[in-house]
Amino acid sequence: MKRRARGKPIKHCPHCNSSDLEIVGGMILGQVYHCRSCDYVGSLVYETDAPLDAKGA
Ligand SMILES: [Zn+2]
What is the pTM of this model? Predict the structure, then answer.
């Protein structure tokens, strides 16, 4: 069994696609994220395993 890179999931803002998110608090409904780029606040974020621009070589 081989795994190339076991990066942890990266979260992306659904508005501006930035990965510059921070968790602002765990509430009853779940975690809420804040995007530093566009000021989006919400619990809905995209999650990917690898950086979007890691398609080199
Ligand atoms: Zn954003």
Answer: 0.66
Structural domain range at position 20: 10-48
Pairing of strands 30-35, 21-27: antiparallel
Q: Is residue 54 part of a domain?
A: no
- Residue bearing tokens 């070589």: 57
Per-residue model confidence (pLDDT) at position 57: 55
Q: Which residues surround ligand 1, an ion (CB under 5 A)?
A: 13, 15-16, 18, 35, 37-38, 40
Domain count, the chain: 1
